Amino acid sequence: MERPQIMIVEARFYEDIADEMARGAIAALEAGGATFERYAVPGVFEIPAAIQMAIRSLDFSTLRSRFDGYVVLGCVIRGETIHHDIVAQESARAIQELVAKYTLALGYGIITAENREQAWSRASADERNRGGAAAAACLKMLDVKRQLLLFPR
Hints:
Elements: E1 5-11, H1 15-31, E2 35-41, H2 47-60, E3 69-77, H3 83-102, E4 106-113, H4 116-123, H5 130-147
Parallel strand pairs: 1-2, 1-3, 3-4
Helix pairs in contact: 1-5, 2-3
């Protein structure tokens, strides 16, 4: 059987946190036998657009292979305004709409935190490892698609 190809979309607003989450996700994907491509976006709010672009790219090019699953990684830290809430809620809503519309296998690794220390604890591959958990969730959802005869494509 062909190895699943995963799109990792990383919000790079907090680069150190993004790198750590990617470290955990990559380890989990490699352990699960998947291949991956990494795509960087400025922040969490841009993640749904990147996924939509990947899906739409198939409409324009037969040279592009379809991604079997998606892992989204990012961090939103509370600030002095409600911007944190808007970014977290709207990006999660848009991602969920894409998952439902296109039957995507997706692992959600977007951290919402009160401060950098809390975010780092969740991102650290040696602690809570949200990146690894998101990759594992993506691979598990691919298993569900297999059971329902939706994968491979």
